[in-house]
Known about the structure:
This protein is α/β, with parallel strands linked by helices. It contains nine helices and twelve strands. The strands form two sheets. Strands 6-7-8-3-9-10-12-11 form an eight-stranded mixed sheet, sandwiched between helices.
Amino acid sequence: MTTPSTAAPVPVLEVHDLKKHFPVRKGLLRRTVGHVRAVDGISFAIGEGETVGLVGESGCGKTTAGRAVLRLIEPSSGSIKVMGQEIVGLSKAEMRPYRRQMQIVFQDPFSSLNPRMVAGDIVGEPLSVHGVARGRERRDMVAALFERVGLRAAQMENFPHQFSGGQRQRIGIARALALGPKLIVGDEPVSALDVSIQAQVINLLKDLQRERKLSYLFISHNLAVVEHISHRIAVMYLGRIVEYADTRTIFTRPQHPYTEALLSAVPVPDPAIKRRRRVLQGDVPSPVKPPSGCHFHTRCPYAEARCKVEAPPLREISPGHRVACHLR
Ligand code: SF4
């Protein structure tokens, strides 16, 4: 009789100390005079059927992080494991099987869909490129995907401009599903949609997750949107994760002043509950020359002298809850 394995399941995605620094070049000789530290050492993992929300203001590095995870841009350093296999350093050919496992849904469905292709060809293209299906078989698979995301198979012959914004995002989701991926990175996938349509698309993503045990990295500037789909949330500020916990903890017991400020802008549906509004002063500083010490000290209402010189490490303050702040 075989003993049942007690080993923890391997995460679908494991990211460790991931960095992406872009060189800043100047002058005739294009000499490197500095670096934009867009992503500066982030770590997280996503299990099967789980969603991790990556949140922060525009310019915090979350989109770069999403693209680096998929190796759509090359990371500067760090480790990315997909189903336990390291993918950093793999050649284009070696990456091919992993490309099928990892897909992306973009923010702007209009610019991410080729306007000269009919919707059926857009969704079916990955099936042809990866040699999965062609002809009648491909048509049937695409028709099934259309139906699954709430479109009609008859709409396969329509061009992107003949669809509404929400329908175009459904086409983007169908295309991402075509190869049966394990992981989908959603880069602000509902931000361009009306609020009522946002809810429909999020519900579709949740249904698909249940059905197919999909894992999502859900990137958004909007905590209220992320709350509805994420199991855990990573809050990013200037290239670093400053707080990481399950969704309930982030919403009920946020510990980082930046998370508190982001949360205070989220509307509370119950008028009896009042949240103290904390308006963040100024914009996110430039990642070319981030503030010393704790990057947040220039906007933090609790900043002390040491915050300007000492970067707080991301410490676990309770099981599964990590915070980067000297006061916690
Ligand atoms: Fe604010 Fe200091 Fe905490 Fe940074 S370390 S968040 S500046 S209190």
